[in-house]
Structure prediction request, 219 residues.
Amino acid sequence: MADQVILLDFWPSSFGMRVRIALAEKEIQYEYRDENLQDKSPMLLEMNPVHKKIPVLIHNGRPICESLLIVQYIDEVWKDKSPLLPSDPYQRAQARFWADYVDKKMYYCMSRIWRNKGEEQEAAKEELIESLKVLQGELGEKPYFGGETFGFVDLSFVSFYSWFYSTETCGNFSIESECPKIVAWAKRCMERESVSKTLPHHHKIYEFVLQLRKRLGIE
Ligand SMILES: N[C@@H](CCC(=O)N[C@@H](CSO)C(=O)NCC(=O)O)C(=O)O
Prediction:
């Protein structure tokens, strides 16, 4: 019997984009369901009762939650194409470390930039730039975080590239000026169809952010 794969997601979510990129890298057919997070579907509440968040991958009726765990599940189940994690245990641990670092920093800093103004925004901006410089240092002269090939850390981080424009515009700064190698790396990742067909245009994300700021009363 063919696998039944359903993805509960939300189109601007960087966490959801990670899973979409992984599914595209593995050329897995799946049903995409976009959630209204202001009115969550019974299926989302049933499949992720603990966090009630997207993304959730439902594979033959069984839910897997948390984007980085979903991506690792996909890599372990569909082994025959485009390995995402390294095979060496130590290299796997390093890849998980950097994906976790992205998880701890990107959304937390970026959301504080477009949700705030003044000192709070400035503090978030400084922390984001510092984090991007740490990641740029890790990347070094390599084409990808794992070396010569696109992999788990690249996939975990590049989904936030679609939010760079909104972050820079709300925060009135240039990520490229601060971290040119990170932007060059992101553009390199965008040359892959799995990434370019997944990441929404940055102007579409910006329109979403403007609506969010309006809803939050931030002008
Ligand atoms: N650690 C998780 C984060 C998912 C998340 O925040 N999902 C958000 C949408 S994207 O910002 C979400 O589902 N929010 C709904 C809510 O908080 O009620 C992961 O990596 O999958």
The pocket of S-Hydroxy-Glutathione is lined by residues 10, 13, 15, 37, 52-55, 66-68 (CB under 6 Å). The chain is about 55% helix and 10% strand. The two ends are 53 Å apart (CA to CA). The chain has two domains: 5-77, 89-215.
